[in-house]
Amino acid sequence: MTLTSSPVDLGDYGNQEYKQMLGADALMDSLRRHSVETIFGYPGGAILPIYDAVYKAEQAGWLRHILVRHEQGGVHAADGYARATGKVGVCFGTSGPGATNLVTGIATAQMDSVPLVVITGQVPRAAIGTDAFQETDIFGITLPIVKHSWVVRNPSEIASVVAQAFFIASSGRPGPVLIDIPKDVGQELFDYLPIKPGSVIPRGFQLPTPPELQSLEDALDLIENSYKPLLYVGGGLIAAGAHQTLAKLAHRHQLPVTTTLMGKGAFDERNHLSVGMLGMHGTAYANFAVTECDLLIALGARFDDRVTGKLDTFAPKAKVIHFEVDPAEINKNRKADVAVLGDLSISIVKLLDLSESREIKPKTEKWISVIDKWKKQYPLSQPSNKGEIFPQEVLIEVRDIMPDAYITTDVGQHQMWAAQYLRNAPRQWISSAGLGTMGFGVPAALGVQTALPDKDVVCIAGDASILMNIQELATIAEYKLNVKIVIINNQWQGMVRQWQESFYEERYSATDMSKGEPDFVTLANSFGISGVLISDRKNFKEKLKSALLDPGPRLIDVHVRRDENCYPMVPPGKSNSQMVGLPVHPETC
Fold it and tell me: Which among 424, 125, 439 has a CA at the least distance from the CA of 274?
């Protein structure tokens, strides 16, 4: 049986006495029961019944739907929302091209372990498999890039599927899930039975087990007897919310701390124990430290190639302790001498409790002294304050003007400079790390600002990356989101150009973006967003500060030194200690 409207008053979705309901309305009720208040999406034919229910939910006052201008923008916005808040992000897309437009964003979330519930419309059940108009098998397409997925064949399954989806997306190692709903399922009237969030445990799904006491004791023994330990912290620690425990552990044992790109913000980079980010564009002293350490303590990190460089030369002198929630990551890239499986928010606390039951005498004083010497000898480059504007200068100014801002980035040189020079608290660094998705920054920023309207949000963009989702300026304008977009404009696909310079004998194939590049200020103005051009050093700092601090959305196009490269850099196939472009401190010249 199908109806065009619900027979019940949907002004109160919380009424437990509702019996009959349309599938689409049951979906919205289930989402509300999981504390969903914001959805990012774009409508279409197959998802129209659901959007009719969205309309009712907005009229009832409990839901805010953000209309993005492209489905990829919607999934990245939900991703930014989730990273900034720790909540599950939700986005909608229709069937066919609407669903396939979500794929890049789903893969981005999967690589970075971001909890998303992605809901797609599908052609009616009878049309599935007939190559109907706007039919694609989004269930099959996304199987490799989701934690789990469903095609809802019966509206009576909706409440259970939604409950399972939120449970799976947010439990253990977080990640995206997909729910595909045929159009006629949303239109069917049925007896709806609500399900309490968390009351359905999916068949075969296992929550992380508590860490074994013996593994914690073995880990602590290694830490106590280490002279050159190094904490190697990834995004898993931020997902676990264990940053305060990390700080206590580091100070108690005097452990230097390096973070991955995903782990930025897990430890205060202004602290003397911080050695910043490691890896391909990490600090020299972080890469030297990981090469020389005798114990590497990995916390929620996966030993990916951009961190390790040549794998068999990574931490060659070190024993490895690996704290991890996902058993699949243990011994995947690097064998662990001690593996501590379990939720990091529990494991690290138990390790600290065990530590506090012992008398601790750190042996790291000389080691920290060596690292301090490396910091002085090989600092991040300090750009000139003459001639063209250096991209590093822009990031330093952003850091000084808005030290507490939530930062999103696109992908490329500007991303690495931002990672090197900005300092962020937990969940305030939002960047596509694993997949390296260009076009991520602007929609992620609008997602963050939607979630946290009273916070400063700055998107660090590249002039090439921003063009991939620049239509989301319309979304920012419509909802008057106070997002500041800073374009580090060198008129190149900067990182690709740098590789062509370094490894392809300066054959710059298809990386020059100067021809056809828009006037970004005029383009921003056409969307109703104030644009600011900074093309030379005259009043550079004053213009940037004014634009960043003015209320309302701003696009700030900063023209920087065109051929500046991002250093240090670990060339492919080299060890982390074999960096090129090391800045040399004047004392050593």
Answer: 424
Cβ proximity of 423 and 399 under 8 Å: yes
Residues 218 and 298 in one domain: yes
From the candidates 56, 87, 183, 319, which is the catalytic residue?
183
CA distance 246 to 345: 10
Q: What's the pLDDT score for residue 19?
A: 74
- The mean-pLDDT minimum among 37-51, 382-396, 469-483 falls in 382-396
Domain CATH code at residue 29: 3.40.50.970
Q: What Å distances lie between residue 322 and 3, 279, 296, 548, 555, CA to CA?
A: 55, 18, 8, 41, 42
In this structure, are 365 and 397 located in the same domain?
no
248 is known as an active-site residue:
no
Establish whether 183 is a catalytic residue: yes
Residues 187 and 258 in one domain: no
Q: Which of 20, 134, 491, 578 does the annotation list as catalytic?
A: 134
Residues of the domain holding 518? 391-559
Reading the block at residue 480, the tokens are 């008057």
pLDDT at residue 39, as a whole number = 98
Single out the residue of 487, 447, 482 nearest to residue 554, CA to CA: 482
Mean model confidence pLDDT for the chain: 94
pLDDT of residue 12: 44
Rounded to 10 degrees, the C-alpha dihedral 210/215/217/219 comes to -120
| pLDDT-based confidence at residue 338 (cuts at 50, 70, 90) | very high
| Count of alpha carbons within 13 angstroms of residue 367, beta-carbon side | 24
**pTM of the prediction?**
0.95
